[in-house]
Amino acid sequence: MTYLPDRTLDHLRQVAELPDLSGTRYEMEGELGRGGMGVVYRARDTLLGRSVALKVTEDGGAEARLIARLEHPGIVPVYDAGALPDGRRYYAMKLVDGLRLDRFLEREPALPGRLRVFEKVCEAVAFAHSRGVVHRDLKPQNIMVGAFGEALVMDWGVPGAVAGTPRYMAPEQAAGSADARSDVFSLGALLEDVMRPESPRPLAAIARKARAANPEERYASVRLLAADAARFMDGLAVTAYRETPWERLVRFARGNRTLLLLLAAYLAMRLLLFAIR
């Protein structure tokens, strides 16, 4: 009996699983990734002459209909949807040119740059919540950072479907229940990824509050979480952290450095003039 190497078997398995795109306007270009909700392929849209991300699922098109309700710059738009000959559903999305959030964080050393991306993710999720949509599986692998700093949230969970990743999953979600505060918990875990290795105390306090085991102790909304993170970025006190008098003084000095330098220069000049006299 002849045995095939594992690599060959994996290749044959992937080829056998390739969707039949005959009868559609798309031509297969290759696989992009796999997840709990389906497989994403790179495909060529022969009608418009562009490459797209084509997701093949068995959810009956529920995810595509859900995303189609969310028209926002931070949410990948759906271009088209349909059915394959084998009964599976597909939908075509914008093909994002960029990096997954975890890989972006490996390459971006500056905390302000990382926090700007986090802020954009929060904006997209807050918008979805305003439309009654909960993501259910926020994690670095489901967020793309584009070549120009844009952040796009992908792979939105369909109500009733099994979704979530242990480190980013709220306790109540693991028990079968998820709402907007479950996404707040996931964003708190994302914030921990974003702020490492620096972990400033006010920012760590924001993440801890977002990740509270009791949903009632978390931020009541993503907007409030994002607002506290924005206060930190602006050099202001955050609601999740009680500063010591020394920390308050240091923060004031950092935020008013130019004013303090001018004041010091003025006092130095007055002393010099007094000495000359």
Task: Explain how this protein is built.
The protein has ten helices and eight strands. The protein has three domains: about 5-95, 2-Layer Sandwich (Phosphorylase Kinase, domain 1), CATH 3.30.200.20; about 100-240, Transferase(Phosphotransferase) domain 1 (Transferase(Phosphotransferase), domain 1); about 250-275. The chain has helices at about 5-15, 60-70, 100-105, 110-130, 170-175, 180-195, 200-210, 220-235, 245-255, 255-275; strands at about 25-35, 40-45, 50-55, 80-85, 90-95, 100, 145, 150-155. The strands form two sheets. The protein has a five-stranded antiparallel β-sheet with strand order 1-2-3-5-4, covered by helices on one side. It has a three-stranded antiparallel β-sheet with strand order 6-7-8. The chain has about 280 residues and is an alpha+beta fold. It is elongated. The protein is about 45% helix and about 15% strand.
- Percent strand: 15-25%
Low-confidence stretches: none
CATH topology tier name of the largest domain: Transferase(Phosphotransferase), domain 1
Q: SS-based structural class?
A: alpha+beta
Strand arrangement within the widest β-sheet reads 1-2-3-5-4
